[in-house]
Amino acid sequence: MTHQRYEGGCHCGDLRFAANVDLSKTVACNCSICKKRGLILAFTPLTEFTQTAGEGKAAEYLFNKHVIRHQFCPRCGVEAFAFGEMPDGTKMAAVNVRCLDGIDLDTVHPTPFDGASR
Predict the structure, then answer these.
(1) Do 93 and 46 touch, CB atoms closer than 8 A?
(2) Sign of the CA dihedral 101, 27, 25, 88?
(3) At residue 12, what are phi and psi to the nearest 5 degrees?
């Protein structure tokens, strides 16, 4: 599969985005926040991500090494995306696949990632 354009957002719709992601390369991280929130993530360069509603309205949560800027809706509490850097330093967006519109989650097969040990 290749990158495809998807739209999505939080539960209440205050935060919306569009992103080009490859759903054949999703990740299920076992770090404390991803595990508790049930996140399935797809990563894309920040140039392939656009926030289409709620710009500047997201609340941010940092923990551990403060390298991932988790963004969540202050109204409904859903984390639809996060920001950070890829290993090569490229700025990226991590999209919560569960927040994409019209996705059949039974077709998504995330690769486990051991974030708890990092």
Answers:
(1) yes
(2) positive
(3) -85, -15
Here the tokens at position 118 are 């990092």
Burial class (CB in 10 A: 0-12, 13-18, 19+), 27: middle
Q: Which of 2.60.40.10, 2.170.150.70, 3.40.630.30, 2.60.130.10 would CATH assign to domain 4-113?
A: 2.170.150.70
Per-domain residue ranges for the chain?
Answer: 4-113
pLDDT digits (tens, 9 = 90+) for 38-74: 999 999 999 999 999 999 999 999 887 788 899 999 9
Q: Distance between CA atoms of 89 and 103, rounded to whole angstroms?
A: 29
CA distance 29 to 14: 26
